[in-house]
Amino acid sequence: MTEFEIHTLESAPEASRASLEGSRKAFGRIPGLHGVMAEAPALLEGYKELHRLFAEETSFNKDELTVVWQAINVEHECHYCVPAHTGIAKAMKVDDDITNALRDETPLPNARLESLRTFTLQVVRQRGAVSDDQVQAFLEAGYTRRQILEVILGVAQKVMSNYTNHIANTPVDKPMQAFAWQRNASTGSA
Predict the structure, then answer these.
(1) Residue 74 DSSP label
(2) What is the predicted pLDDT for the residue at 24?
(3) pLDDT tens across 40-93, in order?
(4) Under CATH, which number does the domain 60-167 receive?
């Protein structure tokens, strides 16, 4: 197995150091994912910018952000991002019923959020080739054309992190280890 270095400020390529310093200031530490991504400065910058855009510039509220992120993380079976976004959801004060339903792949507490998870998974599983009926069902659930496109932004962000974590086998950060996750074989999807 190829080993990837989890860079520190000292070991990172020069082009990644300012970004890692920003991570350290924001989190009080450098998340392992950022340390791995630092090997490719453009990946780290791109990921952080997509995260900022998705979290701060989309029309989704905190519950909806969590649904999109965790639906993708669980679908991709990301051992790092599911715990990380569980901690993020707690910090955002997302109801534990939402977080647990996403982690356990059980029904969400309301139909609107469930339709967001369903549409997000359709986009991921069908590689964006969703049907007119699927789009219409999403719109009828109260979402907008803008939000269809914002789901794509969330997918792009999560592909960057989930795939990096799969390839690098990034260890779960210590503060997130309490939220360790593994897909339940009886609920997993293909």
Answers:
(1) H
(2) 97
(3) 999 999 999 999 999 999 999 999 999 999 999 999 999 999 999 999 999 999
(4) 1.20.1290.10
- How distant is the alpha carbon of residue 102 from its chain centre? 12
CATH numeric code, 7-57: 1.20.5
For residue 93, the surrounding DSSP H or E stretch is none
Q: Which residues of the chain have pLDDT under 50?
A: 190
Instruction: Report long-range pairs for 123-127 (Cβ below 8 Å, ≥24 apart).
Output: 123/151, 123/152, 123/155, 124/71, 124/72, 124/75, 124/76, 124/155, 125/75
Q: Count other C-beta atoms under 10 Å from residue 39's C-beta.
A: 18
CA distances from 143 to 82, 112, 137 (A): 25, 9, 9
CA–chain centroid gap for 173, Å, is: 15
53-56: Cβ within 8 A, 24+ apart: 53/153, 54/150, 54/153, 54/154, 54/157
What's the pLDDT score for residue 188? 53
For residue 155, the model assigns a pLDDT of: 98
The domains of the chain are located at 7-57, 60-167
User: Which DSSP state fits 172?
Assistant: P
Distance CA 103, CA 99 (A): 6
